[in-house]
Amino acid sequence: MTDVGTLLMADHLYQLHQAAKAQGSGFSMVIFDTQYLPRLFATRRGPYLQQSVPFMKGRPWVRHDEHYHVDFTIPCQPQRPAEVKP
Ligand SMILES: [Zn+2]
User: Fold this and answer.
1) How far is the CA of 69 from the centre of ligand 1 (A)?
2) Which of 35, 41, 68, 69 is most exposed by smallest CB count within 10 Å?
3) C-alpha–C-alpha distance, residues 52 and 6, integer Å
4) pLDDT for residue 1
């Protein structure tokens, strides 16, 4: 049986990814402590997360056992020309 915290994190990542896609964005990278990934993938959202979320491979440079980290893909908009003041 999966603990409630893992179920909530899996659902949060799923909902966040759905919301990002609805805005024309997505995830460029998610850092989630690799020791907890098997528990995340064992949830009902696991197959979706494994297929759709780019989890960082390897070891992050700071601890991620007390938070997870989501980088979004957000396209840049063209810059407006600098405002000219009189
Ligand atoms: Zn982080």
Assistant:
1) 4
2) 35
3) 18
4) 61
